[in-house]
Design brief:
Order of helices and strands: EHEEEHHEHEEHEEEHEEHEHH
Structural class: alpha/beta
Bound molecules: nicotinamide-adenine-dinucleotide, uridine-5'-diphosphate
Strand content: 15-25%
Domain NAD(P)-binding: 31-323
Radius of gyration: 21 Å
Family: Belongs to the NAD(P)-dependent epimerase/dehydratase family. UDP-glucuronic acid decarboxylase subfamily.
Largest sheet: 7 strands, parallel
Pathway: Nucleotide-sugar biosynthesis; UDP-alpha-D-xylose biosynthesis; UDP-alpha-D-xylose from UDP-alpha-D-glucuronate: step 1/1
Subcellular location: Golgi apparatus, Golgi stack membrane
Number of strands: 13
Cofactor: NAD(+)
Amino acid sequence: SAGPVAMPKASSDKVFPATRRLLRTEQQRILVTGGAGFVGSHLVDALMQQGHIVYVLDNLFTGRRENIEHWVGHPNFEFFQQDVVHPFFVEVTRIYHLACPASPPHYQANPIKTIKCSTQGCMNMLGLAKRCNARLLFTSTSEIYGDPQIHPQPESYWGNVHTWGPRACYDEGKRVGETMCFSYRQQHKVQVRVSRIFNTYGPRMDPLDGRVVSNFIMQALRGEPLTIYGTGKQTRSFQYVSDLVRGLIALMEGDYDDPVNIGNPQERTVEEFARSVASMCGSAGGVVMRPRPTDDPMVRRPNVARAREVIGWQPKVSLEEGLVPTIEYFKGVLGREDAKLPA
Ligand code: NAD
Ligand code: UDP
């Protein structure tokens, strides 16, 4: 009775982004934990485009399947939905260990989960690196410097971190993650790389993650006032995600194995940042002041001399350049949200 039924499209019909063809001997087998997140998915794109075999391990706690959907079904790609706190085994040559909730509202929502991820999860991945004789890159953070008393922050600074404040679950988790990396290096000769990442932004950020970049852009696009926490005189230095991904790969493939800051030294007060976002989004919503969060660092700016020297890396994208595609991305998010509203 019914007419011809359309056959479901075979997965081989899917059109994938272009990838280089590598010889088997040139191809790395790479595990990216947290690969469905903001930074991880951009890293996965770069590694896939280079022609490598990429496995993603992610529990989708803050990441999204859409971020990696364009690779699902590709012969070089595999996604495993699992928590890093559980043992996991694949045969790999490289491990980029990113899995960890990263924005203050996310990592503070369930601090014990954050600590387990940073301790048990990191231990599992170092154990895997040891077993496979793989090299592991750990994404540490500028947060290990806490509320810094040295400015800008060089890698030699040991930091100023509150051990039991609201940020401690994240900061101390990353600090012990670094400690574990260097203990595995010393005791088991595991090859480790440690990147200390400073505030990074770009397309695929979670619009609801509560970070200043996503909050301000979403507020500005909606014509709402931008929420400045505290005086707005505190500073951050914002790095565009493509610079970070280039830095992570350079660090992984280089020989240097002490910690390296990866960030953009262009420093702004939160107030100045609000002004830039408002003007670029054409917002007339103004600003509103909110209380300063406990232990919110007053200043943050990387010293990137070491990265320049040991991996020949420096950031290329200015804040004004990087905000353009980022704002476009958030416009798309808002467009999709509006489409879901009842007429
Ligand atoms: P994100 O939240 O977008 O990505 C984290 C990913 O890890 C998500 O996909 C999430 O689902 C996954 N994840 C979380 N807990 C997990 C678990 N227990 N098991 C498996 N997967 C888990 O955050 P992001 O900004 O992409 O950050 C990536 C990494 O870079 C994090 O380790 C973060 O600490 C670090 N970092 C980011 C920044 C930044 O500004 N974005 C700055 C410093 C450090
Ligand atoms: N911030 C703000 N308004 C917001 C969100 C954050 O003024 O809506 C401030 C926050 O207090 C901090 C800075 O912006 O001083 C960066 O905050 P974010 O959460 O993005 O990152 P982190 O504090 O981890 O650097």
